[in-house]
């Protein structure tokens, strides 16, 4: 058995992410939301009611980009902001039905891409990788 090279994990994750984003952007090039904006939709599909601060932390994008992206996604009808009053600075963000349908569309495309990227792995290896990914996600994205 080969020695576990933990130092390779960030490098390999970066390579997988780059290939995945490139292929997904190609698939979504004629769609209303693409690129980094889709990340917010995917986060909101898992964590309903995030604030701008939550989305900024979970996405690792800067606050200005997050604010502009949520505004754009709102204009597209994919999200709505639940403000307690008109001048409230802190509010929760939710997917609309249209946003949920778009996330489903994106996930269908993304699943095909993932299957292509990881086609060299067995089902058991994919199950193991999913388990590890969920543990890493729970650690970094815990609320």
From TrEMBL:
Annotated HTH marR-type domain residues: 6-138
Protein name: DNA-binding transcriptional regulator, MarR family
The entry's keywords: DNA-binding, Transcription, Transcription regulation
InterPro entries: HTH_MarR-typ, WH-like_DNA-bd_sf, WH_DNA-bd_sf
Source species of the chain: Anaerorhabdus furcosa
Residues passing through the membrane, by range: none
GO MF annotation, one: DNA-binding transcription factor activity
Pfam families: MarR
């Amino acid at each position: 058995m080969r020695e576990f090279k933990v130092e390779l994990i960030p490098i390999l994750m970066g390579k997988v992410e780059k290939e995945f984003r490139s292929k997904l952007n190609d698939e979504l090039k004629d769609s209303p939301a693409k690129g980094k904006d889709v990340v917010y939709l995917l986060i909101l599909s898992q964590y309903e009611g995030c604030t701008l601060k939550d989305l900024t932390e979970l996405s690792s994008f800067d606050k200005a980009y997050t604010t502009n992206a949520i505004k754009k996604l709102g204009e597209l009808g994919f999200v709505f902001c639940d403000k307690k009053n008109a001048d409230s600075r802190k509010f929760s963000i939710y997917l609309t039905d249209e946003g949920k349908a778009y996330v489903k569309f994106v996930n269908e495309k993304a699943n095909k891409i993932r299957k292509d990227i990881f086609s060299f792995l067995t089902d058991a290896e994919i199950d193991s990788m999913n388990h590890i990914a969920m543990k890493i996600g729970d650690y970094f994205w815990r609320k």
